[in-house]
Amino acid sequence: MNQAIRLLLLLALAVGVNNIFAAEAAEFNQLQDEVRAKLNRLDQLIAEAKANGLATEYAEVSAAVIRYYLRAAQYDYDNADEVRELFNSFAYRTETDPQAADKLAFEELRDCIDEADYAIAQLKQQLAGEIVLTPPPDFLAGKLKLEMGYFHLDGRIVFPYSMVWLPHDDMELVRALGTRGGGYYQLPFLKENGEINAGQLKARQQDTHAQVAKNLSPYVFLTGHDAAGWMKKNHTEVLKGARHFTRYDIDSPLIRGWVSDLYRQIIPPTSESLGEHPMVHLLANEPHFSIRRGGWKSQNGLSEFTLDKYRDWVERKYKTVKQLNAVYGTTYTAFDELDTTNPISLDLRGGPVWYDWCRFNMDRVNEWFTFLKNEAQRYDGKGHPVSIKLLGHLLVDPMYDHGIDIEYLTKLQDIQGADLRVAPRTARFYGPHEQGLDPKRGWLSRYDYDWLSQAMYLDFTRSIRPGSPFYDSEWHGYSAVSWRDYNLSRDYCRAAVWQAFTHGLSGMSPWVWGRRSDGSFRKTADYIGELSTQPIAVSTFGRTMKELNAHAEIIAAMVPKHRQFILLYCQEAAIQSEAYTHHLCDVYEALKLQNYDVGFTTPSEIMNLDPAEQIVFVTPTEFIADESLAAISRFIESGGQLVSVTDRLNFAKNELGQLREESPNLDTFRTLPIDDVLSMSQRFGTLFAPYKTKAAITITANRKGKPGRAWGLFAQQAELPETGDVYVALNNAHKETADIALTPRDGGPASFVNVLTGQPVQSPVTLDPSHVLLLRLER
Question: Do you find a cis peptide bond into 439, omega within 30 degrees of 0?
Fold first, then answer.
């Protein structure tokens, strides 16, 4: 090929590329123009509706989000190489559309058009008098206070919210997406002489004062658990035994002293600067202390401080080496010879060594968090409450070597904390740990979203500590390590949040807002498939929280204060048997599918139940301590009703795995076989419906014309004593549409009002997957 032809080809290629870029630019500009036109129309309608005294707060969320994404989409378009690099660095990039990075800015603008159309249509309905929306409370104008299990704004129950890492310098976005404030402190704030870095202290104070001036509240301050550089260099031993989010040895006396130094110097000025605004000490982020071989960061082992503690713990428990040898089957001559190899083998599970290691691990972690709570409140003269962001899946984790004693920490916290997880069926799931994806038997076979672990954790904590608030400071309902959905639907975004609050959540901050105010992204965020690339999901979250807050008194009243159907949670069995938590989840799910008020108890709590009113269900429990078994016997002797959903292995061994000489003879109310979830649920419905307290409204549901087959329809009721009004919330988590008949207890006409829109509703009601209704019975 001669030079002239080569030049012509290159010229043609350049012209072609330029034409592609020109067409792309024209399309982007056209989309921007359309978004701006829609936004202008939306702003006009907001002004008109406001002039007519209508609630415009919901539409203002949409407008704020659209205005922001005009900046964000422009950034993504102008920085295509940077966005492409982020997409390529995503751990699961092979699962994503290879052209997703180039499409992102365009998709964001198209979502803005969709959101504008949605908001405009709703405003037109309001202006025409077709719907009536209730104004939500203004968090920026009122005074927040924590009391009686919930935050109150000027005496009214509210659900504070925000997004993780939402910047506070765009107040339109803050008003739309949440007003929670706060900050963090950690050991790197300390200098080698033990004094706090003056610059860090000043920066924290300035940031806190700025937030107070904006009335951002409540203020959640996270203790970060990383060591300073000088600590790692001069005292390398503090890193032995570190784990993922607690990156040092919690048993080190040096660490304890430094934490005290940090709290002593930073908590008093922080607390004082807040005045009367509520503050929360968030003691840790996702603590996890695995000790089994192959567990999360367990390869870091344990420090000599920890191993010495373990030897002392074992000696206190067994008193003599002879007794230890009798249990362990060993030939030690002194406790100093005790095998402290760590991480430990999973092969030991079911025996005394595994149990003692796991129980000791929980005890040392309990002591660590008790220390943190005592130190935080010691230096905080106002005694602000403490919380811990626990991993939400730990209640159902089948391994149980994580060191987290959920019952103890539930009782230790003043405000319950966790990062709960929900996931839509449309998501892409990553990793072998993802459960329930069997299309024939798993949750995908019947539900539109995976609701179980969230509902179960909330039901557990609300049973053990019914008056304790629950703030989820890193809610994983919009993305998680294990899944992404690149086009989250409005229905799912709304239903998953509603499910959380009708089960007792008091406030939330979803993971994660990955952008700055100018639209640029934070490289520490996941970014790919997360919230800040999805305008519709972001707007839906803001709108849903305003909707929930507008009716917070009703929502809070729907959380059961008295639970009739109680699951026994036996920690010894959870430690020793992988099957235990699987069965616990199955029986819990089967009961929930009947819309029973399900709760939890433990051997230490069971005598607090009402034996005449509450029925206790025991799942297959092979391992149980003598004292726990004695507590169950006392409950039965007091007239308590025990349903054994189990097999012949129930209570066969003590917590150390030793066979009992005689099987316990417990007088059970019923003995039922363990079975698949739907079979058990049907059996529970037949046997226990007569024992269920008759609700104000009888709810009958079906799908595909089959009565009683609407698995996953959550129906919760409340009767407000002040007015006598009866409310019912419906949330269809099933993957198919359900037809719902509602019959008042007194047999009167089944006439209802949709509380969220003011429209009349007649029974039966047809509810699509992930749709939510809040109805008031009309008289």
Answer: no
> Bridge-partner residues for 773, per DSSP?
730
What confidence category does residue 431 fall into, taking pLDDT thresholds of 50, 70 and 90?
Answer: low
Collapsing DSSP to helix, strand or coil, 686 comes out as helix
Whether 511 and 475 have beta carbons less than 8 Å apart is answered as: yes
For 384, the token pair is 């602000």
**What are the distances in angstroms from CA 648 to CA 21, 370, 622?**
71, 39, 9
**Distances, alpha carbon 621 to alpha carbons 163, 423, 573, 614, 646, in Å:** 40, 29, 6, 20, 8
Query: CA 358, 360, 363, 368 torsion: positive or negative?
Result: negative
Q: Which residue has the tokens 């202290």?
A: 201
Number of helical (H) and strand (E) elements in the chain, helices listed first: 20, 28
Distance linking the first and last C-alpha atoms of the chain: 89
Determine how many CB atoms are found less than 10 A away from the CB of residue 336: 11
Q: Give the model's confidence band at 668: pLDDT under 50 very low, under 70 low, under 90 confident, else very high.
A: confident
551-587 confidence digits (pLDDT tens)? 999 999 999 989 999 999 999 999 999 999 999 999 9
Q: How does pLDDT run across 710-748, given as a tens digit for each residue?
A: 678 999 999 998 899 999 999 999 999 999 999 998 877
Structure tokens at 774: 């809040």
Distance of alpha carbon 421 from alpha carbon 419, whole angstroms: 7
Residue-wise pLDDT for 623-656, tens only, equals: 999 999 999 999 999 999 999 998 767 899 999 9
Residues contacting 550, CB < 8 A, separation 6+:
133, 134, 135, 136, 137
Tokens of 354: 């595994």
- Using one digit for the tens of pLDDT, what is the confidence trace for 174-213? 999 999 999 999 999 999 999 999 999 999 999 999 999 9
Contact status, residue 363 vs residue 250, Cβ threshold 8 Å = no
Sheet strands side by side (includes 738-744): 706-707, 697-703, 738-744, 765-767
Asked whether the beta carbons of 522 and 516 are under 8 A apart, the reply is yes
Could you tell me the pTM of the whole model? Answer: 0.95
DSSP type of residue 694 = P
CA-based nearest residue to 139, from 178, 191, 192:
178
State the Cα torsion 413-414-415-419 to the nearest 10°.
Answer: -10
